[in-house]
Amino acid sequence: MLRTLLAASLLLACSAPAFASSFAGTTGGASSAGSSASSDSSSGNDKVVLQARDDAASFVASEGRIRGAQLEAALRHLRERNADARRASDMELAQAILAL
């Protein structure tokens, strides 16, 4: 059930113009400090998760033995922003990333 919910949440997030209020997102736009750093924007958040797809594939294919840096960053990113992701296993999240 949780795995289905995670996959559905990530798929819905990808079909939205921005990842706002999804696993991979925050509210889009410039930071209140006026910083030009793109890591605070929703497009920067999308990138963290999408760039982890190859690492997620390796992780799933190796049954969790191969843990790439991009996957680790995406898992941390997702869990910081979403309660469902905090309850999910690394494998569930990696599979959900692959479903994007």
From TrEMBL:
Region annotated Disordered, chain positions: 25-46
Q: Where is the composition biased (Low complexity)?
A: 25-44
What name has this protein been given in UniProt?
DUF2388 domain-containing protein
Keywords, comma-separated and alphabetical? Signal
Q: Which organism is it from?
A: Lysobacter yangpyeongensis
> What taxonomic lineage is listed for the species of origin?
Bacteria, Pseudomonadati, Pseudomonadota, Gammaproteobacteria, Lysobacterales
- Tagged with keyword Signal: yes
Q: Which Pfam families match?
A: DUF2388
Q: Which segment of the chain is annotated as a signal peptide? A: 1-20
InterPro entries this protein is in? Answer: CHP02448
